[in-house]
Please model this.
Amino acid sequence: MKRQSFWQQILRKIRSAPAHCPRGTAARCTQERHGGTGLETPQSTETAEAAHYAADRKAYKYYEYVRSVLLMLGRPEDTICDVGSRGVDMMTFLPCKKKISIDLEIPLQAEGVEGIVGDYLTHRFEGLDIITCFQVLEHLDDEVVALFAKKLLEEARIAVVTVPYMW
Model:
């Protein structure tokens, strides 16, 4: 059998992913019918709002796509950093040796993850292999976006960045 390319693998995973579950039934539906997403609600957050924010997004098809991409990219020897996580788990399922979450208010607090409350633009990282930034750039002031994006692209070997469709 012929080996599939990276993008063929992504498309296969996307096409086989379950449709988005209706609001209010997502957690039950994900567990019972789809075997879970691997995206867990934060273990400990500063507010109930952050836990709700993460739980509400757990079954979104978008996160299933992102998870599929990250599973193909992450290696056991890698260091990964998620910028602006707001407590949403996009890394505990990865085999990476070091996992870092940085957020202005609520970084991911989970076993094996170094959570940093701070400003990404002023924090210095060394030795990052993968940096992720999901649905964050649209929240920044126009004057800061280019500097922020440039830092994301320069800081690691691989950058995975998403923004909303209509941004």
In short: The longest strand covers residues 128-134. The helical segments are 6-16, 26-34, 48-57, 61-73, 142-155. The CA atoms of residues 24 and 80 lie 32 Å apart.
